[in-house]
Specification:
The chain is of the alpha+beta class. 42% of the residues lie in helices and 21% in strands. The chain has a 5-stranded mixed β-sheet, with helices on one face. The longest helix has 15 residues.
């Protein structure tokens, strides 16, 4: 007898407590809002100090360093480019200003610049 059969027999017999399924659903749906979506991010293109190579800079992030790294990883993955995140800034390699703005808006951030 596998777990599906056991679960089916418990449901049929009425031995499964009523409150457990609802508690699990509430925990997964009541995910806390990510900190930092109430501020505007500034997206700009920069070439200074980069040996002539263009980089897209995202400034104004006010969340934790972990949230900053997570956002940077999401952007880099979706754009298929490299970059870094440190000191409240995200650096994306290449001229990706319009693409970054679009992605940030779809994620839920306010964008300026």
């Amino acid at each position: 007898m596998d777990w599906k059969d056991t679960l089916g027999s418990l449901l049929a017999a009425g031995d499964l407590p009523e409150g457990d399924a609802g508690d699990v659903a509430e925990e997964t749906t009541s995910e806390p809002q990510k900190a930092g979506k109430g501020f505007a991010l500034h997206v700009l293109k920069e070439r200074k100090g980069r040996a002539g190579k263009t980089a897209t800079i995202i400034e104004g992030f006010e969340g934790s360093d972990e949230d900053l790294r997570e956002l940077a990883a999401t952007l880099k993955h979706r754009l298929g480019v490299g970059g870094s995140a440190r000191g409240g800034e995200i650096l994306i390699q290449g001229d990706m200003v319009e693409k970054v703005k679009g992605l940030l808006r779809t994620i839920g951030y306010k964008v300026k610049g």
